[in-house]
Specification:
Order of helices and strands: EEEEEEEEEH
Radius of gyration: 15 Å
Shape: globular
Strand order of the largest sheet: 1-2-3-4-9-8-7-6
Strand content: over 45%
Largest sheet: 8 strands, antiparallel, barrel
Structural class: mainly beta
Number of helices: 1
Amino acid sequence: MSGRFVVHEHHSSRLHYDFRLEMGGVLRSWAVPKGPSMNPKDKRLAVQVEDHPVEYGNFEGIIPEGSYGAGPVVIWDKGTFELIEEKPDKISFRLNGSKLKGEFTMAKLKKGQKGNEWLLIKRKDGLEDPNWKLQQVLTPEVKKCLRVKVPSCSVS
């Protein structure tokens, strides 16, 4: 199976990165507080949130105050992915994006407090970067170009 992926840089009440995989006709979504990493030593907490409609993958804008997820949202990375393995507690895939490349695993925490905690881990595949530093794309110049808008699709 293959599909699209997108990572949104989301400046809501706290900066986080929304990691999304197109699977089963929806965007399966996880909030990654520290953002994804190309360094296999970084095991990033990824909190699974509600699935989003596929159309949401193209969204960029400023969600207005009082709305769910209020704040600026920009696409940080996007591309395609190939599913390697899917189990109830583990999803492995190969990403082909402009920033994220190669194999990753999403592993569900067995002792998570809420049952929706996963770890996003870069696998050693020759494409890893032990010196990885995440860089934000929402600069003041980019923010000036964003418009206030409510996503045209509702979250399920």
